[in-house]
Design goal:
This protein is an alpha/beta fold. It folds into 2 domains: 185 residues, 3-Layer(aba) Sandwich (D-Maltodextrin-Binding Protein, domain 2), CATH 3.40.190; 166 residues, D-Maltodextrin-Binding Protein, domain 2, CATH 3.40.190. Helix content is 42%, strand content 15%. The chain contains 17 helices and 8 strands. Strands 2-1-3-8-4-7-5-6 form an 8-stranded mixed β-sheet. Helix 10 packs parallel to helix 11. The longest helix is centred in the N-terminal third of the chain and has 20 residues. The relative contact order is 0.19.
Amino acid sequence: MKTNIGQMAALGLLMVTTAALAQSKPVAGEVAEGSLKGKTLTFVSYGGIYQDGQIAALKEFVDKSGVTLLSDGPTEISKLQAQVESGNVTWDVVDTGDFPPYVYCGKLFQKLDFSKIDTSNIPEGQISECSVPAMNYGVVLMYNTEKYKDNPPKSWKDFFDIEKFPGSRALEGSGDLSGGMIEQALLAAGGSVENMTVADIDKAIEKVRSLGPDTIFWKTGADSQQLAESGEADMIAMWTGRAMTAVKNGAKYTPAWQDWLVVMDQMTIPMGVKDPDAAHALINAYVGKSAQEILAKTTSYTPIHKDAKPEVDEITAAFMTNTPDKLKLGYQQNIKFWVENFEVANEKWNALMAGN
């Protein structure tokens, strides 16, 4: 069989094109040497040990790409909305809570180009049109071991039982809606989370109010950590990373893992960023194995790269949420319900935070 010159040329072009496509396919954690030299990106998150760990996880990306990385925060949807509406977006990659990327996809957050992000190692079901997970973690009930001694609380039902377990409580009051916590309050009030309605939100919030006027609503992770280290609150709903750090610092608290709330922060790109390609490159680097291991080492948050094997100390390992025993005890909130009812639920929750 004879092959003419035209066929050979076409075959060669196909081979070159195929090779180019193969080379251009992103690999999580990798970035081309000097590819972002002279460019600046602003990364936004929630501060403290968490954001410090994220910046540490991105160091290799910064060093290799040549980008200048600025850090800002905390994440506030109202600030982002003002930037998008004014057409002056200064945040390039934003770490958010669970719901915003679902609620504001295509409005405040752009749909991601997954030809630029390698998501092959991310757990199934954790990717949305406008986000990939930043990490996995939990909200866990931490209780004062010296207060409760031989009769400790075992679940959120006990957290909301002030007669059987008297003492002060602390809940997140940062302004971010916690659907999982509302569901736990509803269950403690004798309600059902199946086929929830808006009326159930009111019932749950009343249960939170029933904890009494001494309830502390902490604004930042640092606040919750301080509450544990000072012993000011007897039971505290805490992010696992802050809980771990408090215990390392000597706080006499321990977790009740039953129905810990499964949570993941989200990595997003705002609408109107000046350099979407550079923002995608940062996220692709962040979801890499090495970056996720560094993040886990420095924060105790659970890595989302399936092959990540961070070397951590005993206390840090105790607060990782991806072990089989922890996964069995985890509680998954009804994201579909909360996205559909986000505005009304957020209004009611913020009214509670404002004391109304």
